[in-house]
Amino acid sequence: MLHEIRKHLIEVARTRRTCTYTELNNQLQLNLNFDNSLDRKHIGDWLGDISLHEYDNERPLISALVIHKANDKEQGDGFYKLCQEIYGDNWESLKRDKTFEKRIIDECHEFWTDVKNYKDFSNDY
Question: Cys staple from 44: which of 26, 39, 65, 78, with CB 3.0 to 4.6 Å?
Answer without folding.
Answer: 78
